[in-house]
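Figure 2 data, in text form.
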Amino acid sequence: MTQLFIILAQSVTGAVITIIALLLVAAIIGYLTAWFYAKSVYIPIIKDLENQKADLIKQVKGLKDDIDKLNIEVKERNEKITKLEEEIVIKDKDLKNLNDKIVRFEEEIAEKDKKLKSLIDQQR
């Protein structure tokens, strides 16, 4: 009877080891199958996304260059506007001076006209 227990114990231990080894092999096969499947499915998607990313990076660089050009153009236009505003201020001062001269000239003409009228009235 002891021999029977020894044989059963040895066969149970061998069976357990065999089952564990088969489960381990099945797990490895499942892992590798899933890994290859995921690789075959997701790598093209990843490559497409990387290409899209590269395209977007190029677009962003182009847009940044455009922004820099526009900022330079805005700065130049602001400088032109400032110069024109300064010219307007100068021209406005000149116009005021001319208006003042015109007003004085008109006043002088009015005074001379009064004097002439008074002289004409005196001579009559």
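Caption note: The chain has one helix and no strands.
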